[in-house]
Write a structure and sequence with these properties.
- The structure holds two protein chains of two kinds.
- Chain A is an alpha+beta fold.
- Chain A has three domains: 191 residues, 2-Layer Sandwich (Aldehyde Oxidoreductase, domain 4), CATH 3.30.365; 213 residues, 2-Layer Sandwich (Aldehyde Oxidoreductase, domain 4); 313 residues, Aldehyde Oxidoreductase, domain 4 (2-Layer Sandwich), CATH 3.30.365.10.
- Chain A is 27% helix and 21% strand.
- In chain A, the strands form seven sheets. An eight-stranded mixed β-sheet of chain A has the order 1-12-13-10-20-17-18-19. In chain A, strands 15-23-22-21-16 form a five-stranded mixed β-sheet, sandwiched between helices. Chain A has a four-stranded mixed β-sheet with strand order 3-4-5-6.
- The longest helix of chain A has 23 residues.
- Chain A is globular.
- Chain A starts with a helix and ends in a 17-residue tail after the last helix.
- Chain B folds into two domains: 75 residues, Roll (Ubiquitin-like (UB roll)); 68 residues, DNA polymerase, domain 1.
- In chain B, 32% of the residues lie in helices and 14% in strands.
- Classes of the chains: A alpha+beta, B alpha+beta.
- Chains A and B meet through β2, α8, α9 and α18 of A and β2, α1, α2, α3 and α4 of B.
Chain lengths: 795, 164
């Protein structure tokens, strides 16, 4: 990373205006673009500023003192909880509030949420006593304290620090519970203790004689009670004498967590009142529509502003450079232009009309076929060793038979529903950004680097996200918006991509992948040697994930990753490497079972039973439960079949780690003409020590059924002339109601460990389970996704 | 040029180019932001509103074609979230990210207006909105529930939403 000043200079945008000064511009827009409202009374929401609940928390005049940075309690007992994670449909708005309320002992019906301030996080360090995970710096997944996740959250680098007051504001890695639980609990516990201190002072009794429940403090011996709202102001003044002695509940003591709670923001989402970043309108905002070179790493060669400057509402064109890869996790995006106008539609219309030539990078010869060939060739190279046990080649030589199969998967976009956007105001000494963002701390850093304004002066106003599925799936939306707004200093600018720009230029992708698996079987058909080679784009996220033990017994195993260096920006799409790798492994296991002439459930069961690992019984429990749920082995109509798959989203760590074990059976029907329907899905899902909100978990699993179906059935991005060929819903289909299975059965099973998460742990199994079922129904083994490429007719 | 529009029972005049999609007049000019932009090509349904009672993708009709019609957006469905479809949606906690849900709800309301007790097949063909979170399982149940709520007369008038 270069110095702030250098980055700031390099990231300066070039601007051409329509020859109006600011004042003239506003006069002009008022004449041609204004709105005449006849009939009043309908509430206008034009001044909303990124608020997802009916309040404006981050700058509100504080008339009610906070208990601590996370909790404000009003005289009427309303509890406001600051949410440090970003709600993108996974339920953190509610789950984070539950984790704090669990310790606060407040009345859940009086809890509301507001986003924590990433600006305050830059200016204020977390109290030292909150930094320690009670389960230690490297928590065991089976220690019931603390969440099992990130230990003491040491991760601090140039872009991000997790010692700020709101700690880990990144929403990723399934980690909103496992990574944050202990400090949420500590925040709730500390506030509760200070409320007790305030009550103890009022009654002149020791806190040990007091109990707190549902926002009421009771002194049992005298029968006196006081509400939280009555002592909150005093509690806010009192310091806890020994905060380091505060303890938190372990997993078995939770009472609120583990109960089904409707999501706090759902009422706003059924009335259109929930505010996403795309709904924000700061008074005086100009609108920008941006377009970058469709071949990543490219730039603008020339454009002709004169050709569009007389178009209605046009204000200016801003040319912006390639975002510094250091700001976007090393990914290379393109430079581009933004047309700025008094409405977004006018900006888009003018951008479409703008004569524009690109300076293409030397990647225009690349297409899916020659890129896939490069991956296939990399398979024959030694690769990067991920895991090894035994002696693979010796064992392979002793095998009775050898089975080999190759698989491939395409690039995939996340395809969130809300196109990338952000509203930004840059002034001489401050940046304000209204955005839905899975990592506001990194956006804060980006904005600071681009503008040269210190992070302490960058204010992120968080909004809900219309889908997320991985931060840099959102691409450089914030960087584009800040660069454009910097060029129009003093002027709020709302930058918004088109759908086409969002999917085919602005996003990052699940990497295209190729795998070759080879197994040496013994006389009974069980593998004694297993060679797993998985190739992907160099920038693939977690290309090893779900490939390594535990799981099945492979006494001699070698796992290698292979890479080809492409220009396509890959990133952390939902479940990262698992969907590709589980498709490879769970398809291949099925092929081995067939080669051995054994039932695929029984074959998996045997391979797990032969293994020796910490969660073996839990794996068997999952497999047995889903077999029972799905009536495995019972007859089905002609053209119908079941397929099975299991995974725990394991990472390549040597020590036991958190995991979420889920086994699934998909029942499909395939018509003789080859039309597939997903008829039924049965899911056995790991409950671990317990969920925060089981209702949200069910919703996440239900949603992942649709996600997995789309992955396996419909979706694939292909490259031609160095760019993506697909860019909207017509060529990157998202399934609708009619394709969702009529029957989805979900059962939880109890285990004694912390979970990896729930938002991406029930999707990787679906593609192989469906492909396995399709094979049973049709006799056709599909090794290249998606299914819609294949003729699945049968006679 | 000015176009008179009737939206949620109120009269507006929007001064935009005639080919401007109705969606952008609703969202950007009139700030009724419950109606969402998803694809701009009439595919995803996030922008669904009612025009003369029919569910319409508002990104795909020009504002000039909406003059003289009666338009309803999610904001006009009820003043307090108590339309039976909204009540059913809350009962099943249907939304996840929620971005597509305004359009999904408007499609469901239009379906229930023409088919009071839809079958699963009628729901499949009548509600074709895309939801990337995959809320279809709960949306289907909520539509059946809303149909039941709409078939029984309300217990009182102007019910309050105690679910907030």
């Amino acid at each position: 990373m270069t110095s702030k000043q250098t980055v700031s200079d390099a990231m300066t945008a070039h601007i051409e205006t329509a020859g109006m000064d600011r004042r003239e511009f506003f006069i002009t827009t008022a004449a041609v673009g204004g709105t005449l409202v006849v009939g009043c009374g309908w509430p206008r929401r034009g001044d909303a500023v990124g608020v997802t609940t009916p309040a404006a928390p981050w700058y509100r005049e504080s008339t009610i003192p906070e208990i601590n940075a996370w909790i404000v309690i009003a005289p009427d007992d309303t509890v406001t909880i600051r949410i440090s994670q970003t709600e993108l449909g996974q339920g953190v708005w509610t789950a984070c509030a539950m984790m704090i309320s669990e310790e606060l002992q407040c009345d859940w019906n009086k809890v509301r949420g507001e986003y924590a301030s990433a600006n305050r996080d830059a200016r204020e360090e977390a109290p030292a006593w909150t930094l320690k995970n009670p389960a230690g710096p490297e928590p065991s997944p089976t220690d019931p304290r603390g969440g099992g996740g990130e230990g003491d959250l040491p991760a601090t680098n140039e872009r991000i620090s997790w010692t700020g007051v709101y700690r880990r504001m990144t929403t990723n890695r399934s980690a909103s519970v496992k990574g944050n639980l202990y400090f949420y609990q500590l925040a709730g516990a500390e506030a509760r203790e200070r409320l007790l201190l305030a009550a103890a002072e009022r009654w002149d009794v020791p806190t040990s004689e007091l109990t707190a429940k549902d926002s009421i403090i009771t002194h049992a011996t005298t029968g006196r009670t006081v509400r939280y709202g009555e002592v909150a102001t005093r509690a806010a003044e009192l310091e806890h004498p020994h905060p380091e002695t505060i303890t938190i509940k372990s997993a078995h003591e939770f009472t609120l967590m583990g109960t089904e709670r409707k999501n706090l923001d759902v009422p706003l989402k059924v009335t259109g009142q929930a505010v996403y970043a795309i709904d924000v309108k700061v008074p005086g905002t100009l609108h920008a529509c941006a377009k970058a070179c469709p071949v990543w790493g490219g730039d603008v060669k020339s454009y002709d502003f004169d050709a569009i400057k007389e178009m209605p509402g046009v204000h200016s064109v801003v040319q912006f450079p390639k975002p510094d890869p250091g700001l976007v996790r090393g990914r290379h995006f393109s430079g581009g232009v933004a047309v700025v106008a008094d409405s977004w539609w006018r900006a888009k219309t003018a951008l479409d009309a703008l004569p524009l030539e690109w300076e293409y990078p030397p990647y225009t010869h690349l297409n899916t076929e020659n890129m896939q060939q490069a991956l296939v060739e990399s398979i024959d190279e030694p690769g990067r060793l991920v895991y090894q046990q035994g002696n693979l080649e010796d064992a392979m030589a002793q095998a009775t038979s050898v089975v080999e199969a190759s698989y491939d998967v395409p690039y995939l976009a996340r395809a969130r529903m809300e196109p990338g956007n952000a509203t930004v105001l840059v002034t001489d000494d401050r940046v304000d950004i209204w955005i839905g963002d899975q990592s506001p701390q990194e956006t804060r850093f980006s904005a600071s680097q681009i503008t040269g304004i210190p992070q302490e002066q960058v204010h992120i106003h968080s909004a809900h996200l219309g889908g997320g599925f991985g931060r840099y799936g959102n691409g450089p939306q914030a960087e584009h918006a800040v660069m454009v707004a910097k060029a129009l200093k003093g002027q709020p600018v709302k930058m918004q991509w088109t759908r086409e720009e969002d999917w085919s230029v602005g996003t990052t992708y699940r990497a295209m992948g190729v795998a070759r698996l080879r197994a040496g079987l013994d006389a009974d058909g069980y593998p004694i040697a297993m060679d797993i080679r998985a190739a992907a784009d160099q920038t693939a996220s977690s290309p090893h994930r779900s490939l390594v033990p535990p799981g099945y017994f492979f006494p001699n195993l070698r796992v290698t990753n292979h890479f080809a260096d492409f220009h396509v920006p890959c990133g952390t799409r939902r479940a990262t490497g698992s969907p590709s790798n589980v498709f490879f492994v769970e398809s291949f296991i099925e092929e081995l079972a067939d080669a051995a002439g054994k039932d695929s459930y029984e074959y998996r069961r045997e391979l797990i039973s032969r293994n020796d690992f910490l969660f073996k019984d839990d794996w068997l429990q999952a497999l047995d439960l889903v077999a029972e749920m799905s009536e495995w082995g019972t007859p089905l109509p002609e053209g119908w079949a079941r397929g099975i798959a299991i995974d725990d989203r394991r990472y390549d760590r040597e020590k036991p780690d958190v995991c979420t074990i889920a086994a699934m059976v998909c029942t499909v029907s395939v018509s003789k003409a080859g039309a597939i329907r997903l008829e039924r899905v049965d899911v056995a899902f790991d409950e671990g020590f317990g969920f925060v909100n089981p209702l949200s978990v069910r919703k996440q699993i239900e949603g992942q059924v649709a996600w997995g179906w789309n992955d396996v059935m419909h979706q694939g991005f292909t490259v031609k002339d160095g760019r993506m060929e697909q860019n909207n819903f017509h060529d990157f289909p998202v399934s609708r109601m009619s394709e969702y299975p009529r029957e989805v059965n979900i059962r939880f099973f109890k285990t004694n460990h912390w979970l990896e998460g729930v938002g991406e742990e029930a999707m990787s199994q679906i593609p192989p389970a469906i492909v396995n079922a399709v094979f049973r129904a049709t006799g056709k083994r599909v090794r290249s996704l998606p299914l819609r490429k294949h003729d699945l007719s049968w006679a | 040029m000015p176009f008179p529009l009737t939206i949620n029972g109120l009269q507006y005049v929007v001064d935009v180019e005639p080919e401007t999609p109705l969606l952008w007049a609703i969202r950007d000019t009139l700030d009724l932001t419950g109606t969402k932009y998803g694809c701009g090509i009439g595919q995803c349904g996030a922008c669904t509103v009612h025009v003369n009672g029919q569910a319409v993708r508002s990104c795909s009709i020009p504002v000039s074609a909406a003059v003289g019609t009666t338009i309803t957006t999610i904001e006009g469905l009820s003043v307090d979230g108590t339309h039976p479809v909204q009540l059913a949606w809350k009962e099943f906690d249907a939304p996840q990210c929620g971005y597509c849900q305004s359009g999904m709800i408007m499609s469901a309301v239009a379906l229930l207006q023409r088919t009071s007790a839809p079958t699963d097949d009628e729901i499949d063909s009548g509600v074709t909105n895309a939801c990337r979170c995959g809320t279809y399982y709960r949306v289907r149940q909520a539509i059946h529930r809303a149909a039941a709520l709409m078939s029984t007369p309300p217990a009182g008038s102007g019910g309050r939403n105690d679910d907030v």
